[in-house]
Amino acid sequence: MNPSASDWILKFLNLFEKEELIDAFKNDHEFYETLKHTGFIYGVSVSAVPKKTLGNLKLTKEELSKINLFHALLFQFFHTNENGTYEEAIKSILLFYNQLEKGKKGFFQKFSLSQSPSNTLEHILSARLQSANSLLKKNTISLLTHALLYLDVLSYKHWQKDSNSVKKYYRQQETIVLTACFYTLKSKKKKTKYDKLLIELFETSSEYIIDESEGGSATFLDSLNYLDNDVDSLEKKYILDLCCLTVWEDLKLDYSEQQFLQQLLVTLSLSEIELQNSLSDLATFSKKYTEKILLFEYSNPVKQFYKQSAATVKLLIIRNKDRLTRELEESGELVVLLGQSTVRDLSTEEKTKVKEQLLDICKTIPSLTIFLLPGGTVLLPLLVKFIPKLLPSSFQDNRIEAAKKKG
User: Fold this and answer.
1) For the residues of 96-147, what is the DSSP string, one character each?
2) Which residues pair with 96 in a beta bridge?
3) By the 8 A CB rule, do 311 and 60 touch?
């Protein structure tokens, strides 16, 4: 299964029985815990919820996040509509996103022209991954996270009960979660330069009204008293998990952090055990999969664009390696020019030839049509960078010969 290609949703649904995807979990709480163990709640999915293999491809964290988001939405549908069908679930999720995104010019329409419902949903989920990882968009700094994707799941659950207030609910939950994380971050005794930058960005953002006074955190905590008193409330567990994640960078809690989290427990009517379980789950995940998990990651937008683009190009090349190799081998002049480009500057005419021939090759491989999109030619140097790994013999031979001539 390839979550970056069309029809992956139908493929996913075909791989598993409903009993495996839905009936294997007793309730919301059990599914949430399983979802957390995949890393989805932390914004770094390292696996999908189903234990059975999804195929031979090595999936990226973004692709796994996409699968987990769809699975979580699917679970919420069947939790409410026990006798529903997959087709009804897809249509329901589409209606939810249409309602949630209503008012955003062209968001839903641009994905729904001449496409099946499942294909439309695939494009929307991809778009959600892109929009969910950029906060405080008016700032020149990007704050990147996929941890907020679970807000979609909570909002969909709410939408099934009251569709008219879903946008208000989403904005309210986003504000609560981010503000809780802000005050948790502010409670840290030893703040890194990135902690200070994030605090400054929150304080200067018009999107989130932050009380900078000494009693600001207490006022915020008081505002949470309206939340459902249900101890198993998913909203409460989610807030607690993200607040723990916010202070997790140094792998320990100082007194001020501990004090704020204790106050949060009281406000959310959660027990000390809940906090210990949250910290224990985070410690286990961190030790098993990655040493560093951050809710927010500071990144210069230009560097982040290049980093994401490079990862995308590399993934596309690996998955289309055989076909791309055949196409390149049939273009002798292109290979020679690429080889020579490693030891000398190509002329303007030669650079134009390389660009045109690379684009011709990309036209023959559907997955590489990303290079044909507006602005796609900017990514061509990244494609050139990875090509040597595809042509070890002819390319390296050209390179050696050219190097010898130069010597």
Assistant:
1) HHHHHTTTSTTTTHHHHTT--HHHHHHHHHHHHHHHHT-BSTTSSSEE--SG
2) none
3) yes
Rounded to the nearest 10°, the torsion over CA 303, 125, 238, 171 is 90
CA pair distance 244, 184, nearest whole angstrom: 8
270, 236 Cβ separation under 8 angstroms:
yes
Q: Determine the average pLDDT of the residues in 284-306.
A: 61
Its pTM stands at: 0.71
Number of H helices, E strands in the chain: 20, 2
Name the token pair of 11: 């493929």
How far is the C-alpha of 263 from the C-alpha of 273, rounded, in Å? 14
The span from the CA of 245 to the CA of 147, in Å, is: 10
Kindly provide the residue ranges of all beta strands, DSSP E only, lying in 136-217, ordered along the sequence.
142-143
Quote the distance between the C-alpha of residue 109 and its chain's center: 23
Confidence bin at 307 (pLDDT 50/70/90): low
- Measured CA to CA, the distance from residue 175 to residue 163 in angstroms comes to 20
Side-chain half-sphere CA neighbours of 119 within 13 A: 11
Intra-chain end-to-end CA distance of the chain, in Å: 49
Gap between the Cα atoms of 394 and 302, Å rounded? 34
Helices (H), 290-373: 301-319, 321-329, 332-340, 348-363
For the chain, what's the residue count?
A: 407
188 phi-psi bin (left φ>0, alpha ψ -120 to 50, beta other): beta
**What is the C-alpha to C-alpha distance for residues 268 and 290, in angstroms, rounded to an integer?**
29
CA distance 177 to 264: 12
pLDDT band at 44 (very low <50, low <70, confident <90, very high): confident
Q: How confident is the model at residue 287 (pLDDT cuts 50, 70, 90)?
A: confident
What CA–CA distance (Å, rounded) separates 388 from 397? 11
φ/ψ of residue 323, rounded to 5: -70, -40
Identify the DSSP state of 251. S
Query: What tokens does 75 get?
Result: 């679970």
Q: How far is CA 173 from CA 161, 170, 242, in A?
A: 16, 5, 13
Q: How far is CA 338 from the centre of its chain?
A: 34
Q: Which two tokens stand for residue 206?
A: 């018009």
